[in-house]
Amino acid sequence: MRVVIKIGSSLLTTGDSLDESRIGALGADISEVHSMGVEVMVVSSGAVAAGMKKLGLRRRPSDIRHKQAAASVGQSTLMWAYERSFSTHGKKVGQILLTRDTFYDRTRYINAKNTILTLLDYDIIPVINENDSVAVDEIKFGDNDQLASLVAGLVDADRLVILSDVDGLYTRDPRRYRNARLIPVVEEITPEIEALAGGTGSLVGTGGMYSKLLAAKRATQCGIRVNIINGNVPGLLPALFKGGAFGTEFEPVKDRIPARKGWIAFGLRARGSIVVDDGAKDAILARGKSLLPSGIVSVEGAFRAGDAVYCTDRDGERFAKGLTNYSADEIEKLKGLRTSEIEKTLGYRYSDEVIHRDNLVVLKKC
Description:
The chain is an alpha/beta fold. Helices cover 38% and strands 19% of the residues. It is elongated, with a radius of gyration of 22 Å.
């Protein structure tokens, strides 16, 4: 079994510094899971929080310059804490820092996957974090819940475990309402389920329950089982892998998105949209067809051939995403035309399809 374990800042810090005792307890639990023969990867927050004390900051910085400075000085502290914790149990760790653009380019994407899998071959536990010291808004993940879901898809994980500071997903906020009930199993992440998750994370973190639900939605669509459990309870993580039922478990979809299409759906940033008519939408959704120029109504955004774009209907609903064979300017000239008119209009023809079915992903509704 291959599993990604995500650890948030609130589990690693106390006030403005790292909580060494908590890291020690987490290292013990993860080491026990690893000793069960499970291939383990850790996606860890905490670098910015670890650097806050070194910089004399009492609150998490809001500007990018101070965040990057805190991450730079905090990353080594965080990794050294993991190194000490895991070595106590005879485990070795390796650091991997990623930015969002790792997932944009297919070559970088495959290279990152190969690096992680090679570490697993050597029985090393990769500790993965966002490279906050250089990441700017355009290449940031937003939070490590999203990074964890992308890594899980990248390495074809069987399971994603998100360690939280609450027991799981509740019917209401358990910190405010005594009658809140824990939801043990979620078969499908519906709009009603999403509505249960709201609010923001802690002072030292960036993700709340909604962020965890979004990560779970992405992972389950790739056929990955997701668990949200309380990371503050020692022994809970290995007990989960021994068959225990804790927190909230999200079941994977039966019709999973293949790995390459998962990269298109979740790894790539869309550079624009193509608005299509009802006939083209039906052909894509109901009959599994490619997008042809005859069904295109208009183009939104400036993009090049090979970029990822959304397919939307006239009401603006995004129902598919794919790699376009033509630029926005070229599609503007081709919209509404038959495929036989492509070469006559442009003077050349890359493909009969604006987006070929092999490069097109239907976005599942939730």
